[in-house]
């Protein structure tokens, strides 16, 4: 096959090596940086180079590989699919023209004999019915079903917009284009063997699939790239980049639709700093500009599949020491399977209690070997008229929909029914709570980012540390130089910070001194107050005075107290003034057991421990 590659980055290089190993002919390369393009073409001895994919003559290609950033996939794939659709229409037209010519010959093969006109017309009508199917079949055989059509292989994800994905899928169907999407992990021999064992029924019903995908790819220093660009459509990162691969393996192995799902995201830092060379760093220095990190470094994904199997997946692009590690463990009714791509040739297998063995699947298969196997399967399937194991556009679109549903679950902090997740976002809210939720999701990229930047600034500006035991960020800011008659300093003040990420709060404790809490900025927070008579009270500090929030509150001596952000908040900056001044002799932690024994039936206490303990 004569193949053109669009893109000159890392993954394009992987495609080129795999295509050559699979015996395919790379005849054209397209890239938008001329120096890189020249280097790529020289490395792989590709004669024809282009800076615009639309300039590539279609007649020199049998297939095209799209190896560009995800935000370009839609436009490029659409261009070639529409060319194939035009070809499909032209083939139909050619069939009709040939049919008409043949019918004219049948109607009057010997015009010199001047057959009676009426008889000739009847003869033509009859032969239309007799010859139409045969002529069409002969032309189809002559041209071939995919004659002149470009096969398309696209890197995942198919695109970044679900509606665009649906449009591409419809074009694939209309044009009957051979189209594969690069979920290469399907082509590890051990994964194929896992699927074979599951399909055989030998291990019975799948009960639990759990695993992880870890990389250190985005630990600073790291180059700034499209991967961090939320404005250009990359509102997901760990989920769409690496999570999509394990989601595809889940689908490939278990072949069951997702019923419910839930996700939680966590970031290592919400702001990094870009230098003039385009590198991102953890710390701010002269000449570096802050860059908000609005898509996720890590994620935890949970699913329930049709049939009852549970799936739990952990994702991280900031795992030190893990270049590219995937592991999967599958617990079934009658056995267990385990696979780790650190030893990709081995499949852990157990079908009896107390025993385990490793199945060796030949020589160690690596990342690039999977691409060779994937492309070989795709092009061999075309030649043999069979279906490739490669992921289809339909499967890729469902994968994209699943990623989007996880995004919405994480932002809403709730579980979704998969079939309802995407529609729920479009539905008109029927309550103020749902309206607030929708507004929060829509404004996440702007308002939340600003709050996270402010929170990180405060921690750095005040050199805050996490207070042992109490779990809140703090920084001492004032100690009175004067002492009372007992020799104690008159007062002390500290700044404190509650934040959603990293999670910080005040666990239950009590002071033998008065403590004056003052709200300074951010989101409202709640103080939980426990009295010796068994009663419980809550006080909310914040800026919304009209709703009953307070700017200041004094906790009496000996009252047990805890504090945390109200749900939905990002951070709260406050100060605590202790009179006389704070010292460790005045501070006592209160155990969870003691709290639960006396106050455990109170709903406020249940809510607090449900969120934090």
UniProtKB/TrEMBL annotation:
Transmembrane segments annotated in the record for this chain: none
InterPro entries to which the protein is assigned, alphabetical: Cupin_DUF985, Gfo/Idh/MocA-like_OxRdtase_N, Gfo/Idh/MocA_oxidoreduct, GFO_IDH_MocA-like_dom, NAD(P)-bd_dom_sf, RmlC-like_jellyroll, RmlC_Cupin_sf
Pfam family, one: Cupin_5
Key word Oxidoreductase present: yes
Gene Ontology molecular-function annotations: nucleotide binding; oxidoreductase activity
Segments forming domain Gfo/Idh/MocA-like oxidoreductase N-terminal: 1-97
Residues covered by the DUF985 domain: 458-589
Keywords: Oxidoreductase
SUPFAM superfamilies noted in UniProt: Glyceraldehyde-3-phosphate dehydrogenase-like, C-terminal domain (SSF55347), NAD(P)-binding Rossmann-fold domains (SSF51735), RmlC-like cupins (SSF51182)
Residue span, GFO/IDH/MocA-like oxidoreductase domain: 191-337
Entry similarity comment: Belongs to the Gfo/Idh/MocA family.
PANTHER family per UniProt: CONSERVED EXPRESSED OXIDOREDUCTASE (EUROFUNG) (PTHR43708), CONSERVED EXPRESSED OXIDOREDUCTASE (EUROFUNG)-RELATED (PTHR43708:SF5)
Name listed for the protein in its UniProt record: Gfo/Idh/MocA-like oxidoreductase N-terminal domain-containing protein
Organism: Oribacterium parvum ACB1
């Amino acid at each position: 096959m004569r193949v053109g590659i669009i893109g000159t980055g890392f993954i394009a290089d992987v495609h080129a090596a795999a295509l050559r190993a699979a015996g395919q002919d790379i005849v054209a390369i397209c890239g938008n940086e001329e120096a890189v393009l020249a280097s790529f073409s020289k490395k792989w001895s590709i004669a024809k180079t282009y800076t615009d994919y639309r300039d590539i003559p279609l007649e020199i290609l049998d297939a095209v590989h799209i190896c560009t950033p995800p935000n370009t996939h839609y436009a490029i794939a659409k261009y070639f699919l529409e060319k194939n659709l035009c070809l499909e229409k032209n083939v139909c037209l050619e069939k009709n023209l040939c049919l008409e010519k043949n019918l004219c010959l049948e109607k009057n093969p010997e015009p010199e004999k001047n057959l009676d006109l009426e008889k000739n017309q009847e003869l033509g009508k009859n032969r239309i019915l007799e010859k139409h199917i045969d002529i069409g079949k002969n032309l189809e055989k002559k041209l071939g079903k995919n004659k002149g059509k470009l096969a398309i292989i696209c890197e995942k994800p198919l695109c970044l917009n679900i509606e665009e994905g649906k449009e591409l899928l419809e074009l694939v169907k209309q044009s009957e284009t051979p189209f594969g999407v690069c979920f290469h992990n399907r082509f590890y021999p051990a994964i194929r063997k896992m699927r074979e064992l599951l399909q055989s029924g030998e291990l019975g019903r799948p009960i639990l699939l759990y695993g992880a995908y870890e990389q250190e790819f985005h630990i600073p220093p790291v180059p700034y790239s499209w991967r961090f660009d939320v404005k250009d459509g990359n509102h997901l990162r760990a989920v769409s980049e690496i999570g999509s691969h394990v989601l595809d393996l889940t689908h490939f192995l278990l072949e069951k639709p997702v019923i419910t799902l839930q996700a939680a995201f966590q970031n290592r830092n919400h702001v990094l700093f870009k230098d003039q060379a385009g590198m991102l760093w953890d710390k701010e220095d002269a000449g570096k500009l802050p860059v908000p990190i609005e898509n996720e470094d890590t994620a935890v994904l949970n699913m329930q599949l049709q049939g009852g199997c549970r799936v739990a997946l952990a994702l991280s692009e900031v795992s030190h020491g893990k270049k590219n590690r995937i592991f999967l463990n599958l617990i079934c009714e009658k056995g267990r399977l385990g696979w780790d791509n650190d030893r990709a040739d081995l499949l852990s297998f157990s079908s009896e209690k107390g025993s385990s063995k490793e199945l060796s699947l030949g020589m160690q298969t690596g990342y690039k070997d999977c691409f060779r196997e994937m492309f070989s399967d795709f092009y061999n399937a075309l030649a043999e008229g069979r279906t490739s194991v490669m992921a289809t556009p339909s499967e890729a679109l469902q994968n994209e929909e699943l990623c989007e549903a996880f995004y919405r679950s994480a932002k809403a902090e709730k579980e979704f029914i998969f079939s309802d997740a995407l529609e729920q976002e479009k539905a008109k809210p029927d309550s103020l709570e749902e309206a607030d939720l929708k507004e929060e999701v829509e404004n996440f990229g702007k308002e939340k980012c600003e709050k996270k930047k402010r929170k990180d600034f405060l921690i750095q500006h005040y050199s805050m540390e996490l207070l042992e035991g109490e779990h809140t960020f703090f920084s001492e800011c004032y100690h009175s130089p004067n002492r009372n008659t007992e020799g104690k300093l008159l007062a002390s003040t500290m700044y404190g910070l509650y934040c959603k990420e990293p999670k910080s709060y005040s666990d239950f404790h009590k002071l033998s001194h008065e403590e004056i809490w003052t709200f300074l900025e951010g989101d409202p927070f709640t103080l939980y107050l426990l009295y010796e008579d068994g009663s419980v009270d809550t006080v909310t500090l914040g800026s919304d005075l009209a709703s009953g929030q307070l700017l200041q509150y004094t906790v009496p001596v000996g009252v047990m107290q805890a504090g945390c952000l109200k749900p939905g908040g990002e951070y709260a900056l406050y100060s605590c003034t202790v009179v006389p001044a704070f010292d460790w002799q005045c501070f006592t932690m209160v155990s969870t057991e003691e709290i639960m024994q006396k106050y455990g039936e109170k709903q406020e206490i249940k809510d607090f421990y449900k969120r934090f303990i």
